[in-house]
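Sequence of Histidinol dehydrogenase (Acidipila rosea).
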Amino acid sequence: MKILRTTSRSARAVIEALESRRAASDPAITKAVARIVAGVKSGGDSTLLRYAAKFDGYTSQSPLQISPDEMRAAWEATPRRLQAALKTAAKNIRAFAQRQLPRSWSFSPVKGLTTGQQVRALDSVACYVPSGRYPLPSTMLMTVIPAQVAGVRRIVVVSPRPAQETLAAASLLGVTEFYRIGGAQAIAALAYGTASVPRVAKIVGPGNAYVTAAKEAVAFDCGIDMLAGPTEIVVTSESGKAVNIASDLIAQAEHDPDALAIFITSNATLAEEVSAEVKFRARANPIAAQSIRAHGLIIVTRSVTESRELTNRLAAEHLTVDSESDLAWVQNAGSVFIGRWSPQPMGDYISGPNHTLPTGGLARVRGGLSVLDFVKLITVQQYTAAGLQSLGPAAIALAEAEGLHGHAEAIRARGVR
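Predicted 3D structure, token representation.
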């Protein structure tokens, strides 16, 4: 890995570029996606199936909608060891989502006024499960389970060429509406609806550049979770073991040749050890090696304080720190892993917190996918006559200050002066 010292002249430009990174929009992809989305929106099933045949290998011999029997057969054909792992992961993800679920409540801030909130699930959501370089049954679990916990009535799953493992996970979760479509055409169908694929209220889940561009294109017509870019890892450590740090960097780098892997430390000796360990381990992992060559970086800072400040500036998707006390300074991160016994892949599969996380610095403004993405909060307010008499004059004063006399009259009409 390249080693950059913050004392060097070139450091500032590199760090500023990292800090302002975004998933670059390829004009050719944006143009192609716009054409696909518009085509499916206007052409419905015929256009959807044409694109599905072209990009997803769809044929009329395979029904567009996957039957429960096909999912069940995939589950029964799954080795017991993997069945057990899927059940363990599902249990932990569900327990975490249940703890996240907000509650309805009400209280009286003053006599005569009751305010509160009601929690309501979205009517329908779609979970996009990629099936490109790797099968991703874990993404099925991470997207469907929070929706189930939230109480979403209609949960749709789409995946082009879904692997047996993905079908098995769908069976485990009791998925009933699963379509073998993907890419921009699937996003368009979900956002606008076709005869075969009724529209949904929101689309969640990661995907490639075409999926991300399509989600952006439909975002004003259909809810989305976030625009995801290549995966990211930052490890900020002064005393970690080089083998642990390097293995986590490699693990995230193997997702994608565009993945970002960064180690931040003020310990120059540890920096050299990690660099050597990464070089050794990348030999057996071609995708990780490609990613590390292109985007891997070790930043040696002047102090622990500078390391912490830089870590927050980068706002990484995944962050590993040395100890629980480090949480006090962490402000921006999608998900945090503490100490040598917390490898990041455990969060990808088993721990419970969602692995669909903000990238490209978006961790500055939001967290990862959660049960909160599948509910809406409806606020409630109720006055008694006495409460309105007490607070109404203040509201009238504010309405008149804004020149909204109808607002003031609506209050006066109820006897308030």
